[in-house]
From TrEMBL:
Source lineage: Bacteria, Bacillati, Bacillota, Clostridia, Eubacteriales
Alphabetized UniProt keyword annotations: Isomerase
The EC number(s) this enzyme carries: 5.1.3.14
Protein name: UDP-N-acetylglucosamine 2-epimerase (non-hydrolyzing)
One Pfam family it belongs to: Epimerase_2
NCBIfam families listed in its UniProt record: wecB
One MF term in the entry's GO annotations: UDP-N-acetylglucosamine 2-epimerase activity
Amino acid sequence: MIKIMTVFGTRPEAIKMAPLIKKLEESREIKSIVCVTAQHRQMLDQVLELFNINPDYDLNIMKDRQSITGITTNVLKGIEEVILKENPDMILVHGDTTTTFAGSLAAFYQKVPVGHVEAGLRSGDKYSPYPEEINRSLTGRIASIHFAPTISNKNNLLEENIAEKDITITGNTVIDALMMAIDKDYKFSEEKLNNIDFDNKKVILLTSHRRENLGQPMINIFNSVKRIIEENKDVEIVFPVHLNPKVRELVKSVLGEVERVHLIEPLDYKPFVNLMSKCDIIMSDSGGIQEEAPSLGKPVIVLRKETERPEAVEAGTVKIVGIEENDVYEAVNTLIKDKNEYDKMANAINPYGDGKASDRIVKGILEYFNKP
Ligand code: UD1
Ligand code: UDP
């Protein structure tokens, strides 16, 4: 059997690796091992529980207000130990977090081939998103096989002289996960959400966590939210606040006491995506949400200056508005006031795959080991 060790540590990696782990477990040719770094603790555990994944190894590295250097060194050391013990034939990493890069580097040092899931996303700006753009580029240099969600992701890799034979277009596993979690009859167990009148109010879902938005950009965004609330009495804002204490302090200082702004804890994946599907507008700096929203036909106002997800912009569901207070305010206000503009963005188009990305990745791994 081929021993495949999956390594991940944060909420989005867990969500997008979970369907793949299920498929690896089903394969008769593969022995699947799961190693979590726990770069995130609570937000990772929420996902592990939902998808019923019991890691074989848990490095438990999360520290309050951790630094990127701290994450990198702890993951490098921890993964090395596990690799020396398990001797896997390949490690699989996902996307662009510091767990992704440090996990890949640890594998490279032990000459273990790396499979990169969600390969080839690029913004072209070294510092935005930071540190993700460099994490994913360096992981791309290390990886032996690249599972690119879309053709444009593949083209980015070809431009960096990655051999075509090493790239497979798979779609994004986030669609596999979304299909497992969406339920049109879903009832929230959170009382705050059940009390919201989704039929008669305009409900905006807000998330923000990006490192480059900490500080003034987040203050600008939250001030624009205040203006939207003050001027539109029929708007309610739901904001599941990321557990990063730096984010929480900023949120509390600007939005702590604002009526119709519901600050709640991070939601489990199932209630979260079902909230996405019930709300009217999404404001977010998240990567994963830009991929889920087109499937659900929900307009996303992206609180960033760039995106590595041009497919969602082309699909029309996602608009990049930057991080200036007035720009964010204008973009959201237009969607609230102008039905034509809203309808233009609210088309359910899915550029990210058919929910079978995990099957294609398993097939790609078997081919790599000449086991078709
Ligand atoms: C990380 C990733 C980012 C990804 C994001 C998804 C890096 C450098 N950043 O950013 O690419 O988009 O996850 O959410 O890899 N915390 C908790 N409990 C948790 C999670 C976080 O308390 O379950 C707190 C801790 O104090 C921690 C801090 O949040 O130190 C920041 O976590 P960290 O993983 O360093 O950064 P994120 O902003 O979450
Ligand atoms: N998400 C969640 N609960 C929340 C907020 C987000 O389950 O309260 C999910 C969301 O559906 C998406 C993923 O988390 O799949 C995105 O994670 P995040 O925004 O933290 O990271 P990014 O995608 O920006 O790296």
